[in-house]
Amino acid sequence: MHKILFPVSEAYPLIKTGGLADVAGSLPPALKAQHCDVRLLLPAYQQVLDRAESPKKILEIYVPESNAHVRLLETVLPGTDVTTWLVDHPESFQRPGNPYHDDNGRDWPDNASRFALLSRVAAMLGLGSTNLSWQPEVVHCHDWQTALVPALISLASRRPATVFTIHNLAYQGTFSAETFETLHLPGKLWSPEGLEFYGYLSFIKGGLAYADHITTVSPTYAKEIQTPEFGNGLDGLLRHRSTQLTGILNGVDDSVWNPATDDNLVANYDASRFPEKQKNKLALQREVNLPANPDVPLLGLVGRLVSQKGIDLVIGALRQLVQMQLPFQFVSLGAGAQEYEHALAELMLKYPQHISVMIGYDEAHAHRIEAGADMFLMPSRFEPCGLNQLYSLRYGTVPVVRGVGGLADTVIDASTASLADKSATGFVFAEATVSALVETLKRALDLYQDQAAWQRLALAGMAKNYSWRTSAEQYLHLYGTLIGTRT
Q1: What is the pTM of this model?
Q2: Enclosing domain of residue 456
Q3: What CA–CA distance (Å, rounded) separates 18 from 288?
Q4: What angle do CA 125, 129, 130 make, to 5 degrees?
Q5: pLDDT tens digits for 215-225?
Q6: How far apart are CA 211 and CA 194, in angstroms?
Q7: Which of 115, 143, 202, 475 makes an SS bond possible with 197, Cβ 3.0 to 4.6 Å?
Q8: Strands, E, within 348-482: which ranges?
């Protein structure tokens, strides 16, 4: 039984701002189901403490480099039997806003010290330098917030193996060179081969340069980040480490995202009861104040309103679809850049019969959009894996995506050939332009008029298996290989 420490900055259902939380809430239970002794470690944010089940103190730790006295609390991840440890340091983690920024969207000014503290606690647990009897064989870290862990662990002679997963290379945890000094990081880590990045401190390089193995969340993204277009300045380092870089596709938590059992829906359904999906469409149309009409194709979008997600392409495409007087409705859920929030709100005011927009995030509403929409838009400029297209396939909601990253790995375009051999699962386009998205949507809207063909397409998506069990098996193989090389 492999012993794995899993330090992260967020995990669903305790706290979520994005896809990392879904992974952290799903992969550890899947690993545990494969007889893995996995312990989740995350900060004791106030929201986490409010949702955690009877957390109890198991350890007090003094972290000298951070001059911090920390309590380690133990609970379980809700709905699972995964042991979860919370790093309780109120000065760092109990504050309003979300884990990374305040209510006005400004990064917390002490983010470097907050996540350095989390990383130091993870490193101490990994190296067995606390009073706990449990010590991991592998420490599996995620994104820049825990990327210092492999760097700190690398300095020890007897140490566990380290894995670092890139969920989004665009977020790197870059701070001033002075921050390196104020964090009291070991001097030998400061070099172009280490944590220095063009004169700045780069947290993410701790994982990229020092982890025993790097993974990212889809095979195509693993290739893309080794190119200047997608590498965010780190493509050279990633090419250098290409033999220690693997793409493992994320999965879907069937206990959460399953139209047959989803408590958020007005009508449950599966492939054998596909017509029941229409009840969710009519309920969603009423909920978002769109005309309740089963014959009008309903487009859905759930996600951050940022350039990465191609929201400007969606806005431009909606304007053209209205001008062309094509039959459609659009419903969206998400928040992000104010310019996109305002543009979508203006479109809703101007075209209330076509467009409904909700700024913010609500998990139950996200489920109802996945079930009620006919198609789901993800025209991302880059997409490490993407989860919503996987949820959409599971819910028989046909994805319309740009062919990048995990979107390219999971959606098969409805070409003449793929429709004929019934392998098609969605619509894929190449160029990040409004015109390319519009032409693809016209293809989708045309096919929608043939309801028999549309149902075959939706059911082909529902037949796909993107479960966490498959991903967990790949991670377990990786863990076993790394452990074997250290014994």
Answers
A1: 0.91
A2: 271-462
A3: 23
A4: 75
A5: 999 999 999 99
A6: 11
A7: 202
A8: 355-359, 375-378, 398-402, 427-429
